[in-house]
Predict the 3D structure of the following.
Amino acid sequence: MKRKVISLLMAAMLLCSTLGGCGDADNTAATTNKEESQTTEAENKEAGNGTEDNNVVTESGERLTISVMGIDWGYGPKPNSEMEEYWEDLFHVNFDIEWVNYQDYSQKLNTLIASGSQPDVIQINKTNGSYYYSIFTQAIDAGNFVDMTPYIFGDEGLASANAVMKNWGDSIWEQASYNNGIYILPRCKSESGQNSGIGVRRDLMEKYGYTDEPETMEELKDWLIGLSNAATEGEGQKVYALEFFGDNFMDDRLKAFAIAFTGQTDWMVDENGEFSYIQFNEKYIDFLKWVKDLYDADVLDPEFALGNSDTSKYRAGNSVALLNAWYNFNQSEDLTSNKIYDKNTPDTYEAWELMPVKGPEAYTVSPNYTDIDSCIAISSNCSDEKIRKILEVFNGTEEAIPGYNILLSDGVEGVHYKLLEDGTRDSSDEDMGRKKTEGYVGAWNQIFLKTDADQVTDKFMRPGARRSSDEVIDRALAVKAFVYSNLEETGMKNAISNLQSATYNTQWSILTDDVNTMCAQYIMGQIDEAMWKVFVDGLVEASDYKSIQKEFKESAAK
Amino acid sequence: MGGSAGKVMLSGDEVCGMKKIIFNRKFGMRAKENLYQSVLWGFLLVLAFTMLVPFFYVVVLSFTDASVYEAGKFTIWPRKWSTEAYKLILSGSGFLNALKSTLFITLVGTPLHVVCNAGVAFMLSKPIPGKWFLNKYVMFTMLFSAGLIPSFMNIKELRLINSYWVMILLPACGAWTIMVMKSFFQSLPGELEEAAKIDGCGQLRIFAIIVIPLSKAMLATMTLFAFVSYWNTYFNSVMYMTSSAKATLQVYVQKIVLSSNISEVVDLQSDLANTVPQEVMRMAAVVVVVLPILIIYPFVLKYFQKGMMVGAVKG
């Protein structure tokens, strides 16, 4: 009898769990609507109603459902948050949105694309610095994504009608092009030459009499060595000269210094149309020698190859300088809303930014791989009507929707922040802060259009936030002006941007697998210049490298 | 040598000598044994130390204040303690949802996994028609998988996308588990089964009242493996779940860990970023995730020790 009861109970539990598993945890009205709309779509398809996408109008005849996949940069936004619902009400649509964390995003997106299951709108993640990576371009070639050229350049197209996009020059549309079509829609134009910054400790500069800023790479080397030694002696602890993270010598932070010695960025193309890579440039060794001089002078962390941002020597007060984005130094007085110093940093630390320094071949100004900050693509499963609605919803502007910019950056007043009398938007209230996090406020600008980046305003004097000192703002503006004019003057850019090479896609990481290790070994004195040259010659003569050069040349000729 | 015949009389010196030899043998052996034991204990302690130190490091680092860690002042004992990382993990709105999802798939999936695999393994341990083919068929799935995209399309066609069942059913049957269970069932004495048959038992009854009770150790081991596997569900959740409300604990924890690195990766609004270093967050995540396994482990330890021999002899 007892056994029978136990068996019955177990069977009942199994049944309950089975039913529970079949259920949907998101039994909200929105989900119900979505399910209804999916049902309608299925029914329409069965009825053979022409277009593949008949999900434009739900049973209520009012709202479109737009499925979206975007990158979750780690915060795990809550579905159907108040922010999401606000956007839905504002645009009169339903979002079926999935945020996937950035580490798994590419794999999931590629699986969806390969199985033809991509949502209506997807955010594209850069692969090897390019938005047009091989799986995406294959899907484009197979007709899985919409060429938005007619919507952008047609009558009353976005390029002329949209208040943000009409300010974009040809360059940004060129960068968004693939095979004479535009399949990605930029969300904003980012600041140029972002990774051209040399952040330094001004309190140390003043304390040890190094206020004269270096102007050339040689001066910079002597300046760093001198200041590092003086600070080490004066502070009673080791203060290194320069921090950059890890042994990736093509890391954005370090690349500007290599550019100063080689006069080229990642890939350049010569007058004969031949492509060449920066690390194989014969002058690249001069850059390595410069770093080696720091290492030999004992002012570079002997474990520089192991460095990571968590244990930043600069943040901990053990480094004179840090290579970083030019707008990411001591942006604000609260010491918490910036990238380098945080609430744990002593108040005595004062950050400063050096002006770009002149090298033998160029200034330490590194052009962006692409000026497109983030972008979306639209599935070709969408009908024309739906595409137009998507373009309307995802391309909002302040001019079209007053208050749009504040919505993007701070959320909804009364829900995500409280407007103080002095105009500051305060979200220190615990409940508001939580809703802000859950609503992913501040991150919707990855998929929605936003005004072009103005980091000086945003980081140093954003309305509603604390303002940096005038001196700091002036320096940020000076660095920005220099970077922009230098890039304009040199016209330097990565020559393979949006070009395709099958060999590059499959073999490049294998071919260059040991390059960074060899760089580190040269700096640490484990190999000499002759060995470096033999190593590079071997790579330049490799059949894969030659194939890559040939394929890029052919792609450029198309 | 005088005295009674047949008895060997030893002089006082000889007796002393003999006693000394016996003492030396006895205590010499003991000294050697003690030395051996000491070395063995020393070795085992060092070994245990090397196992415990990393875990100790993980726990201590998870309680370390950000200022100490960032300043590089953390060695083995933090100068300043903090529970900030745990607060961030446990206070997030998604934590309870994630815990609920993980508990559900673990509590339903684990018994299902054991029942399914034991059933198939018992069948394959018997002389059934087509056994050779079935064995090879199961083996084939151990060596070759369908690949991610066909699997995704299959799941989609089965309408299992965003259903808890995708995380339960996908790992419910595994070739390795089946093979291990099969070899265990084959090692059970055939006479027991014959006796049961004579008493009128069918195969199902033999399985239920004879095979299962005799396989407790093996089943407990497999249950533990299944429990850990379901508890650690990550990839299936990322790939097949579209609602973050249904994501598993591992996915949630991963997101929280990544959020501490957000400012290094992307230029979003800075107030989204945590101020706890990623390494500290990662260690706290490890503790949170490992804790239930540590709690359950002692209860199945006795079975686990017996079950360690399961599958040692294959055939």
In short: The two ends of chain B are 70 Å apart (CA to CA). Chain B touches chain A through 56 residues (CB under 8 Å).
